[in-house]
Structure formats: structure tokens, C-alpha cells
Recover the amino acids of this structure.
């Protein structure tokens, strides 16, 4: 009998053994109880703090409840009410607008900063600390600080600086056209530091011989970045992009603290609308509509992430 035939027979026998149904006694003798015992604390924690709230949210989305009076079953009525709410298209449009501006301005800035910092030979640690400093500042403190920068009067920091060159004053947060870009600017400043650190860590894995070969060929800094750096960071760039899209789709803090959704709902976002459903009424919020919109957002982000990962799978593997 040839060696290939023996291998085929052994493989078939092994597959047959794997197809044999294991009895509970066999599972116990194989250490199943010990495995379950070690998994039990993790299962309890996930069940209490993750799975149960999700299941409870699904139930609440089918009820009319304010968490005070007894809930009433409304079925899909909450979803229908949310879909027919005239504020929903406004919130979706504003959220998409915020995400688009954040991608245009907030996505390339950390990459450019990381590439420039990677070229610095001295003081890189100091620059890294300065770039990461906004991330350390509490978000609420940062927003209150920037509120003084965005003061619409002549005493505002930005308007004062622009007044030196005879520009302004501008109504940053009081203008429907200026409010959303102002929020994006502060959000980019507050969150770019963490992404810069990620890019700096990824740049250390780029083969330096590629840069040396490019330098020998007379490549400029831009050519090195375009031909060497970006292809090597393709996987990291794709991950940070989807993370940024998910994060911007859930923007809440900036529109809530800066403008409360104004002026004229120009900065009303989906999460701010959820907040208004739940806590906007002092007599008791409509938590059913709030959880319904939350589930709609979660399902959309899950489907979008799945489609994005499938569409970019080949790019990240190249």
C-alpha cells in the first residue's frame, strides 16, 4: 500500500472519530466542568452587564414606558413614531454632515502629524506628549474651554485674534452654517492625539530599508509617504477609518454642551435626539422611543461595519 493511501485511510479514520457524538460523561471526563467553572464568572459578568441590558432594551423598544408608571405594550409603534418624527431626517443629515467633515479634516490630520513626527530625530517624546495632551483633558473641561474661544463677541479668543487682521467678529456657535464646522474643529483637536499615537506605533513596523531604497532613487518626502508609508499602513488606515465613522455617528457631547442641538436644530444629532426622547420631558421621558432609535442606530452601524469590512477585506490583505 502506498504512503498516500495510508495517509488517506488515517485521515478518514481521524475524521470518523471526530464525528462520533460525545456523551455528557465523555465531556465531563474531558475537563468540561473545569472549563465551565472558569468561564462562569465571565458569563455572569457578560450576562449581567451586557446581554441582559441588550435584551431589556429590545423589550423596552416595544413598550411605552417612562420607568415610573407601568409600561404598556405598543409593539412596533415606537419604531413607527420614530420613523415619522420630522426631527429624525434632520438628525440623520446633521450626523452625516458631522461625519463627513470629520473625515475630510479629522482623518488626514493625525496621519500627517504622525508622518512629520516620525521624521523628527530629536524631541519626539516631547512632541508625542504634546499631541496626546488634549486626550488627557476631561472632555467637559475641553468643551467649556473652547466655548470661550468661540465667544461670538469681540472678546472671544478667535474673534480677538482675527480682529488683529481686521476680520470678524464671527458668530461661531450662533450661526447655522458655522456651528457644525466649529464642533468638528474642537472634536478633531480633542481626539486626534490617540490616533497619532496609533500611527506612530504602526510606523515603527515599516521596513526602514524601503525608505533607504527610496532615498537612493531620489524620492522626495511626499513620494516616500505615498509610495512607501501609505501602502504599509493600509490595514491600520482602514481600521481607524471605520472606528472614526462609528465614533462620529455617535457624536453627543459636543452638540449637547456647545449648542444643545441649535441653532434651529442645525447641530441636532441622532444621539442627541435619543437623549431628548429619554430626558427631554421633565414629567418623564419616552424611553420606548429612545431605545427604539438606539436599536435602529446599532443595527445600521452593525450592517455598515459588516459591509465595510467585506468591501475592504482584499485591500487590507494586499
Amino acid at each position: 500500500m502506498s504512503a498516500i493511501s495510508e495517509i488517506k485511510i488515517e485521515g478518514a479514520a481521524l475524521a470518523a472519530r471526530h464525528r462520533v457524538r460525545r456523551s455528557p460523561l465523555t465531556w465531563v471526563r474531558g475537563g468540561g466542568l473545569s472549563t465551565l467553572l472558569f468561564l462562569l464568572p465571565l458569563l455572569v459578568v457578560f450576562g449581567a452587564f451586557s446581554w441582559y441590558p441588550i435584551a431589556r432594551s429590545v423589550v423596552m423598544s416595544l413598550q411605552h414606558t417612562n420607568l415610573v408608571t407601568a409600561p404598556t405594550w405598543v409593539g412596533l409603534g415606537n419604531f413607527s413614531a420614530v420613523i415619522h418624527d420630522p426631527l429624525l431626517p434632520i438628525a440623520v443629515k446633521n450626523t452625516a454632515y458631522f461625519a463627513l467633515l470629520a473625515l475630510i479634516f479629522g482623518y488626514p490630520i493625525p496621519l500627517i502629524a504622525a508622518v512629520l513626527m516620525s521624521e523628527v530625530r530629536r524631541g519626539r517624546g516631547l512632541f508625542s506628549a504634546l499631541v496626546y495632551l488634549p486626550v488627557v483633558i476631561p472632555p467637559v473641561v475641553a468643551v467649556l474651554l473652547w466655548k470661550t474661544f468661540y465667544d461670538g463677541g469681540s472678546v472671544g479668543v478667535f474673534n480677538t485674534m482675527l480682529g488683529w487682521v481686521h476680520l470678524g467678529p464671527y458668530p461661531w456657535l450662533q450661526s447655522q452654517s458655522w456651528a457644525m464646522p466649529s464642533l468638528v474643529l474642537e472634536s478633531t483637536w480633542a481626539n486626534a492625539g490617540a490616533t497619532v499615537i496609533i500611527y506612530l506605533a504602526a510606523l515603527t513596523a515599516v521596513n526602514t530599508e524601503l525608505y533607504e531604497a527610496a532615498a537612493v532613487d531620489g524620492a522626495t518626502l511626499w513620494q516616500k509617504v505615498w509610495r512607501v508609508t501609505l501602502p504599509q499602513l493600509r490595514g491600520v488606515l482602514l481600521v481607524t477609518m471605520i472606528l472614526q465613522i462609528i465614533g462620529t455617528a455617535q457624536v453627543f457631547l459636543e452638540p449637547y454642551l456647545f449648542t444643545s442641538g441649535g441653532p434651529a436644530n442645525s447641530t441636532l444629532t441622532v444621539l442627541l435626539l435619543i437623549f431628548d426622547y429619554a430626558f427631554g420631558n421633565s414629567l418623564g421621558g419616552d424611553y420606548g422611543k429612545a431605545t427604539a432609535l438606539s436599536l435602529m442606530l446599532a443595527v445600521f452601524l452593525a450592517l455598515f461595519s459588516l459591509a465595510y469590512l467585506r468591501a475592504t477585506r482584499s485591500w487590507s490583505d494586499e
Remarks:
- Residues 32-60 form the longest helix (29 residues).
- The chain is about 70% helix and 0% strand.
